[in-house]
User: What shape does this take?
Amino acid sequence: MNTKQTFHVIGFLLLLFALFSGSSFLWLFGGFFFFMPAMQSWWISSMAKWVKLEWSYDHSRVMPGTPVHVTIRLRNYSWLPLPATWIRFSLPEHVSVEGADEVRISNQRTIVRLRFDLPMRQSAARNLTLVPHKRGTVWLTEVQSESLPLFGDELSALPLSLSFSLLVYPLPLPLPPFVLDETEPDGGRLSRQRQQEDVTFQRGVRPYMPGDRMKHIHWKATAKTGSLETRLFEHTAQPNWRIVGHILPSYEPLLQRHNDIVNERTISALAALSVLCRRKSFGYELFLTVKQRGRELYHLPAGSGKTHHLHVMTQLAQMHHYVTTSLTLLLRRLEDSPSREAILLVTSRLDEETQAAIERLLRRGHKVAVLDVSEEHALLRRFENARHSNQRRVMSR
Assistant: This one.
């Protein structure tokens, strides 16, 4: 029997004695035991109007092991004090919390409890430090508040709305030393497939053509000639990579094998390549052997710069529940590409079928390098066409 039921039983007995005795005091005293539970129910239903939670943090995108400082402020707008008010929320198990009153692990979740003593019409703040240790998304949408009721010893739970999201990027895997230009199919020469206009070097103007951007119009030359003139820029060429990430199924029933560990190494290697291309200002397009929104594979078009890098890192951080597709089918699609791009395959399983697909790519004129992440340390393997290698041997003689 809880406190509310106990109050109702006491109130019923007092009112029963008041009915036979006619005592007004018993009528008031018995009604008091019915009034308190009703008052408690009203207070719980209206507490959301008087108690507000504020959550602020200094980072929203971090690497694993980076501390995130969080400030939790609880405001009491009512005229009643709220002593011994507890805030409870849960985080993933890999997130460690410092500065809380109580931290425990339950069902692969980190349960955190904080105590607040709120005077009337005032607020109280607590500081926490969250340290995530794995990639993924840490988010909260609701926090449970437990405060002492107006009577009895039972806590009253109150859900408080919250908007908190923390994106944890994958930790880059240490890569073996290699030069990106060595895998570039056309060296430093200007290829028609990779012609780009460098807007930092202008070499003249030309008449306006439909499709030109308005920001490239030379307004001074337009005013002098009386017709629209467009800036003409120098051409440049940059290495354009095709990075293929081989993601294995989480569990293979025929082999009775879990692939979560090797997939994490593959994702970390892709993150390291993205960081390297960002540092060297190389463009690349990303292919993953996972289905995306009804498509047979994930494909991110070629790009470079900070925005492209953040897009790749965000996609890698949020990759959890996925459906894999065949690597051979993906490499078969790359064979029909008219351009001869450098293909870098990141995989943890280099079987005979994959090697046969690599040989077909080499015969088509592509250059292929494989980053093997099956072991703890990544290993770079280069593949060359046998005909080109024989020609090099004859020329060297």
In short: Helices lie at 3-21, 24-50, 219-225, 260-280, 306-317, 327-335, 352-363, 386-396. DSSP finds eight helices and 20 strands in the chain. The first strand starts at residue 51 and ends at 57. The two ends are 97 Å apart (CA to CA).
